[in-house]
Amino acid sequence: MKTQIALSLSLLFCLQLNAQNKKKICIAFYNQENLFDTLDTPNKNDEEFLPEGTYKWNTEKYTNKLSNMAKVIGAMNEGKGPDMLGMCEVETEIAVKDLCKELRKNKMDYAYVWFDSPDERGIDNALIYKKSNVKKISSKMFTIDTAGIGGDNTRGIVMADFILSNNSRLVILVNHFPSRREGEKESEYKRIFVAQRLKNICDSIQLQDPTCFVLVMGDFNDYPDNTSIREVMQAGANIKETGKLAFYNPMNQLLAEGKGSYKHKGEWNFLDQFMLNQNLVNGKGRLSYENNSANTFKLDWMLETEEKYKGNPKRTFGGKKYLNGYSDHLPVYLFLNVN
Questions:
Q1: How many domains does the structure of the chain reveal?
Q2: pLDDT exceeds 80 at position 8
Q3: pTM (predicted TM-score)
Q4: 193, 174 in Cβ contact below 8 A?
C-alpha cells in the first residue's frame, strides 16, 4: 500500500512539474491602419497624414492613435500583450519606437524589427517582441522586383530569425501584399508574384535547415482560397496533410465558423492570416502549434456601435470623418507550445 501511495504521489508530482514547465508563446498580427507620424518623410506620398493634409494629422490625433493601438495590443494574451506581434502599415521607425514607448507605460517592454521599404506611401512592415523569450535574433528585408508588379514600389518582406529560450529556431516572415485598389482580378498577378517570392524564400530556409520552424503572417490582400495563398504558398486547410514544404492555414477553420479579421460588404473574411510549416504542426519538435488556438481578437469596445456599421471594426477615420478608433482590421493570434 505504501509503495502504491508513493508511486501515486511521484506521478502527481511529475504531472504538476510538467504542467509548470510547459510554456506557451502568443504570436499575433495586426494591421495598424495608417500608423503615420506627423512629419513629412522625403520621397514618400504621406501628404494626407500631415498637419495641413487631408486628415489634419496633428500631434493630438497621432497621440490618440498610439494610445488606441497600445490599448488593443495590451489587452491581448489575457492583458499581457502578445509575445511577438507582426504589423503592417507602420510609416517610420519613429512610429514603431513611439508605439513601444506607449506600451512601456503598461509595463510591456518590447524590442522591434523595422526596415524602411520602397513602398510609395511609406507604409512598412514591422515586428515587436518581448526580449525575455529570445536568446538571439537576426533580421533582414527582402525587396520585391518592381518589374513583376507593374512597376510599383511596394513594401518588402520582413524576416525575424529567432533563437528562442529553448534553443529552437523560429523564423517569422511579415508580409503586406499589394492591394486590390485596381480591382481584385486586375491586381491579382501582383499578389501571385509576391507570393512566389515569399515561397522561394521559405523553401530556401527550410532546405538549408530542415529542423527550423517557419511562421508566415501578414495582410495578404487575398483570402485563404485565392491562388496566391492556396496554390502558390501551398497553404491548406488540413493540418494532417501539410507536406514537407507546404503550410497549414488555420484561417480556413475559422472562416468555416463564420469568423474573420476584415469585413467587406457585410461579409467577414481573412485578409490577415497565419501559415505554419510542417515542423510547427507535426507536434514532434521543440515548438508546436497549439491546435485550434488561432483566432480573431475582438472586444466590444473595438467595434462600431453606429447602426449602419454596427459590429464592424472601429477605424481611425470613416471617409474623412475622424472617429478616433483603432483599425479597419481586427488582430489575429495563435499560441505555440514551447516544449
A1: 1
A2: no
A3: 0.93
A4: no
3 state DSSP class of 262: strand
Q: In the numeric block, which cell numbers belong to residue 134? A: 529570445
User: Going by DSSP bridges, is the β-strand pair 84-90/124-130 parallel, antiparallel, or unpaired?
Assistant: antiparallel
Helix, strand and coil content of the chain, in percent to the nearest 5, comes to 35, 30, 40
Closest by CA position to 82, among listed 338, 272, 333: 333
Domain extent, residue 82, equals 23-338
For 183, the 3-state DSSP assignment is coil
Q: What percent of the chain has pLDDT over 90?
A: 91
Mean confidence (pLDDT) of the chain: 94
Give the number of other CB atoms < 10 A from CB of residue 10. Answer: 10
Query: Taking a C-beta distance cutoff of 8 angstroms, is the pair 109, 131 a contact?
Result: yes
CATH of the domain at 56: 3.60.10.10
Q: Is the model's pLDDT at 7 over the cut of 50?
A: no
d(C-alpha 221, C-alpha 271), whole Å:
5
